[in-house]
Amino acid sequence: MIKLARDKHSTAIYPNLSFQEMDAGNLKFNDRFDLIFSNAALHWVKIRNLLLKES
To answer: Is 26 helix (H, G, I), strand (E, B) or coil?
Structure first.
């Protein structure tokens, strides 16, 4: 899915768009988010309350 997204939405056309794949329980982001969109992923996470906790 990530490869398909990258192929369909190149950084030449969408310079501020990126696609990343990582362990949902060990995310490596420095900043907070205004919006998170997830389709067909969060229902697989067993500890959603910890995953979505704002620090």
So the answer is: coil
pTM of this prediction exceeds 0.85 = no
pLDDT at 54 exceeding the cut of 80: no
The torsion angles phi and psi of 50, rounded to 5 degrees, stand at -80, -35
DSSP structure class, residue 35: -
Overall average pLDDT of the 9-31 stretch:
83
Would you give the distance in Å from CA 27 to the centre of its chain? Answer: 9
* Residue 55, CA distances (Å) to 21, 30, 38 in order: 21, 11, 20
CA–CA distance from 24 to each of 7, 28, 54 (Å)? Answer: 23, 9, 14
Tokens of 37: 């969109």
